[in-house]
Amino acid sequence: MTAKPLSDARILLIVGGGVAAYKSLELIRRLRERGADVRVVMTEAAKRFVAPLSAAALSGHPVRSDLFSLIDEAEMGHIELSREADLLVVAPATADLLAKMAHGLAGDLAATTLLATDKRALVAPAMNVRMWLHPATRRNVATLSADGVALVGADEGDADEGEMACGEYGPGRMAEPPAILAAIERALEAPTAIPLPPGVGARDRGALAGKRVIVTSGPTWEPIDPVRFIANRSSGRQGHAIAEAARRAGARVTLISGPVALADPPGVEVVHVETARQMRAAALSALPADVFVAAAAVADWRVEAAGAEKLKRDGGPPALRLVENPDILAEVAARRADRPAVVVGFAAETERVTENARDKLKRKGCDVIVANSVAEGAGIFGGRDNEVAVVSAAGVEAWPRMDKQEVARRLIDLIARLARERA
Ligand code: CTP
Fold first, then answer.
1. Known catalytic membership, residue 166
2. Which residues does 326 contact at the CB level (< 8 Å), separation at least 6?
3. Which residues line ligand 1 (CB under 6 A)?
4. CA of 384 to the centre of ligand 1 (A)
5. Is the pTM of this model over 0.70?
6. Which of 136, 166, 322, 398 is catalytic?
7. Domain 212-422, what architecture?
8. 6-188: which CATH architecture?
9. Rounded CA gap, 138 and 56, in Å?
10. pLDDT tens digits for 279-300?
């Protein structure tokens, strides 16, 4: 019985720098054909042998190789990179990579990922016969196998003795992609998570494990007529990052998103809406939940009677009568039977940021207000970074400017603490 079929598996492929790196492209293709999700990390040396672009095109995901460029919010950190995977596959596993793994070195992204992981690894060694037979490599392979690392090829009965690129004969050649594929399937037959000692990594199992979280995000569009609408500058980046961070913390997440140019975060149920009234209906029907985070920039007003037909210019400028939209945050916070234990609102202010936020906390009946300045020039709306003050019954905490992912992570930590206190 396969614990995880290849068609559902997420493989993190680490490509080392060796002549056999070209075979890793074939491996990606075969894995994808079988339905696996493949993310690729290449060492700097690997990039000398195969183009990252080829691996990106075949895997359908950007290729990572730089430990220090993971600040791009489209990318995941190295911890998530390995933890999101079911299995780490190192192919080709060079003598250098095997040595790093055996000794727990973490000098580049490939090595760090292999050290920071909580999943098992399968290595497909590839190197010159003398390197393979060298006592140092023998020792490293023995260490790795004692550590539970699976090995395919080289001299493990997969008949990989033969002429090498360097002209010598003997063991050390990388297994062919079909043999690696079969080894991956075998590895997936057993659980691939490495168990941790009791008490360790509890947070990684998820500060919000088992909790239900609802997040609203993005702007709302309020129609004027079938082609025109009132909107705002919200990009949804902060709300989407919160949904993603909640999911990483183990929560079941419903993200209710207004129109944004962002991809749906993986593993999150996403409900797409346009208007405030649709957002309200989606939020109420997603209840009950343990946590509600209102990160959306909901339009406060809508046009009372949106035109059924396009308003014509020759009718002159229309007099638009605006009426108030339902306040979703206040309504959820005021629920009796099914009020979420933690209700978080946002306050986008252009002046007197914390005073207004304190006031909003009371007025809307929520537990936390995340206040940010959206004054012109702050670059918050639509930007990568955020600078917030967190207002709650405990007081005001001003956080330094950081990217929206980091704000999301810290906020989820704070929410998890509050949820625990209230449980
Ligand atoms: N919000 C909401 N429904 C609305 C309006 C706002 O859920 N109809 C939520 C937002 O998601 C945000 C918080 O309320 O979490 C703050 O909204 P904001 O528009 O800044 O507050 P207002 O009540 O409009 O107050 P002010 O006009 O003083 O800014």
1. yes
2. 276, 277, 280
3. 216, 276, 294, 296, 298, 300, 325-329, 345-348, 360
4. 22
5. no
6. 166
7. 3-Layer(aba) Sandwich (3.40)
8. 3-Layer(aba) Sandwich (3.40)
9. 33
10. 999 999 999 999 999 999 999 9
